[in-house]
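not sure who needs this but someone in the group chat was asking about Proline dehydrogenase from Neonectria ditissima so here u go. i didnt clean anything up, its just raw.
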Amino acid sequence: MSLARGRGSCRPLRWTASPSCYARLAASPAPISNILRPCLLAASRRRIHSSEKRTSTLAGHPMPDPLPPNVNVAVRAPLSVLSLTMVLRSLATTIVSSSPVLLPPSLRIMAALANSHNPVLNPDRNPLLRFFLKKTFYAQFCAGENAVEVHRTISGLKNIGFTGVILCYAKEVVLTSDQAKSLGEPAKETDDALKNEILPWAEGTLETVRLVQPGDYVALKFTGAGSLALAQLKARLPATPTLYKCIDDICQLAQQRGVRLLFDAEQDMLQDGIDDWTIEFARKYNSGVNDPVIYGTYQAYKKACPEVLSNHLALAQKDKFSLGVKLVRGAYLGSDPRHLFHDTKEDTDKCYDTLAASVLSRKWSSSVKGEGEYPPSSLMIASHNAESVRRARAICDAGAAKSDVSFAQLQGMADEVSCELVEAGQTARKEKGNKAPALPAYKYLVWGTTGECMKYLLRRAQENKDAVQRTRDSRDAMWTELVRRCKSVVGMA
């Protein structure tokens, strides 16, 4: 079974949303939609157009115009595919996360909920707290607590027009600096570690692979496997026998089901160990194929990222396996040593775009160094930065992409970027037919109980603390969409 469906030059994006969907959404019983339901009814009767054009170039790396002038990117406002409830919930979330007044107390409250052992503050034991969180933050970022809820969420995203999802089991550990220092030395497996840490994580991850469909992704977070796994990673040692077998079982099931695995990045003290494990399983499951099962995660905000990627490409070239590259900027500014990162945001942006261009076009560069033929590779542009997404799209539109590519954003965040991808893919299909480059768009989301997801939600909120401008852009985009829908009622849009 080919895993490349919906990516690169393979089958086009599915598009099932239509103007009639607004009428159906307006008829929904959600109380949050009552005030502006007429907007949806009006929007179902008219087609909204946008003529906005953007151009840019990548300094130091020859690239075509990200938005060629002969391409009409959006037939209608990209965010029009979202329900009114989603728009209002996103607006409320971004108002809080972009506010220097509201965000700090919100973070303190979330930290208390994520780390407290008090039953009153435990969402899984306090039904009132669970109800509130599940209708707000949980609904914004998470897939569900069980298979029925997860399938409903995934179906909703695919009906909007997304190619698929990246699903992750919510169980994870984010260590403080004190916890990191006190992390014990590697030890032998114990019955307690197996019963309470490794096996529950493995079963949860196997269930995650079963929940998704062929062509989707599953993200593996090794920190969820417990203290023994953390100690092995910190010491840069191989996985213990039982943990290795669990990971191998997950890889086998994913390969059988046509699902791809993303080995997620973690804090710096664990990352070298994760890279070692990623390459070990990539050698086994990516050998002799152009479409990898195993993807590693590369953090462009780290100064060492170009060297790490170059070394992994050299290993793929030498050992004849395909390298799966999930390219991110990074998520641990608040916990990792500052000297590891680029000095400015501009340096991080330049690094990200240069690495993406190299892998996508399969060309060595001054940053990604190598000799001989570029090894087979596939790229996931995992970014909320609209400009980076457009630069990658420009390479695809120009026909210069040699690697399969997909795009991904977190569920509940950067919807203006995600929906532009969905709309642009549909428009390209209408204009160019089968010759149009596919723009596969995915959403990353976690599943698990409300309590299990709290640490994930806290980390998302902490990331927003370091990306205020980005969340302001999302806030403004949601507000603009809300105003557009209101104007449509009186014929002004």
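also The first helix runs from residue 20 to 26. if thats useful
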